[in-house]
């Protein structure tokens, strides 16, 4: 047992007191420390660069989306203004439709319906447009045509209409679209 202990002591002393082993560890440390330092520095630099590139790409995508939404809002505003200035629509809203409709009023309603229906076909982001005449209680829909208010299938907008009519004559209302027949 004493022999194995002395052998271990010899190997231990040789390993840590040898000039070769000391120089080997010094050279290894001098080579590895700069390489490890460079690796960590390059990794941090690349990580920062990739993060900035990703942020830049996302900001560009957000700017594109913002421009698209702004364009859609401008298109809706332009359509609303054009529709509000339409002579046929003004005639429809001002007319009394308690009596049977004459040819001119039917032609006017068809013209308005065509304009509303065309807006749905051209602008895929508009599902439907309703025009309501409070005077004669009729609704013109771009999908469903002309209806008396009491028989119109979609009554969900009426509560908001009753709230907003006190402050404004026209507005755009976004809401979840229901698929109605038509």
Describe the secondary structure blueprint for this structure.
Blueprint: H1 2-17, H2 19-84, H3 87-94, H4 103-122, E1 130-133, E2 138-141, E3 145-148, H5 158-164
Antiparallel strand pairs: 1-2, 2-3
Helix pairs in contact: 3-4
Structure report:
The protein has 182 residues and is mostly helical. It is built from 5 helices and 3 strands, in the order H-H-H-H-E-E-E-H. It has helices spanning 2-17, 19-84, 87-94, 103-122, 158-164; strands spanning 130-133, 138-141, 145-148. It is rod-shaped and about 120 Å long.
What would a concise description of this structure say?
64% of the residues lie in helices and 7% in strands.
The separation of the N and C termini measures 101 Å
Question: Sheet bearing the most strands, described?
Answer: 3 strands, antiparallel
Q: What is the string of helix and strand elements?
A: HHHHEEEH
Strand content: 5-15%
Spatial sequence of strands, sheet with the most strands: 1-2-3
Give the beta-strand count: 3
Q: Report the radius of gyration as a whole number of Å.
A: 39 Å
- Given as residue ranges, the uncertain stretches (5+ residues, pLDDT < 50) are none
Summed over residues and divided by their number, the pLDDT gives a mean of 80
- What is the subunit arrangement here? single chain
Helix percent reads 55-70%
- Taken from the alpha-carbon principal axes, the silhouette is rod-shaped
Structural class: mainly alpha
Summed up, the helix count is 5
């Amino acid at each position: 047992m004493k022999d194995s202990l002395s052998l271990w002591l010899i190997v231990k002393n040789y390993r840590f007191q040898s000039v070769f082993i000391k120089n080997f560890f010094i050279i290894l440390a001098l080579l590895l420390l700069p390489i490890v330092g460079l690796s960590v520095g390059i990794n941090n630099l690349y990580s920062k660069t990739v993060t900035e590139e990703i942020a830049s790409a996302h900001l560009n995508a957000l700017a594109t989306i913002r421009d698209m939404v702004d364009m859609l809002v401008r298109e809706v505003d332009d359509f609303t203004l054009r529709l509000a200035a339409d002579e046929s629509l003004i005639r429809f809203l001002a007319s009394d439709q308690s009596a049977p409709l004459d040819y001119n009023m039917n032609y006017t309603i068809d013209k308005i319906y065509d304009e509303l229906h065309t807006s749905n076909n051209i602008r895929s982001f508009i599902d439907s447009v309703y025009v309501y005449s409070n005077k004669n209680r009729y609704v013109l829909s771009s999908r469903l045509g002309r209806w008396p208010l009491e028989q119109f299938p979609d009554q969900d907008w009426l509560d908001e209409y009753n709230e907003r009519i006190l402050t404004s004559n026209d507005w755009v209302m976004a809401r979840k679209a229901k698929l109605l027949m038509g």
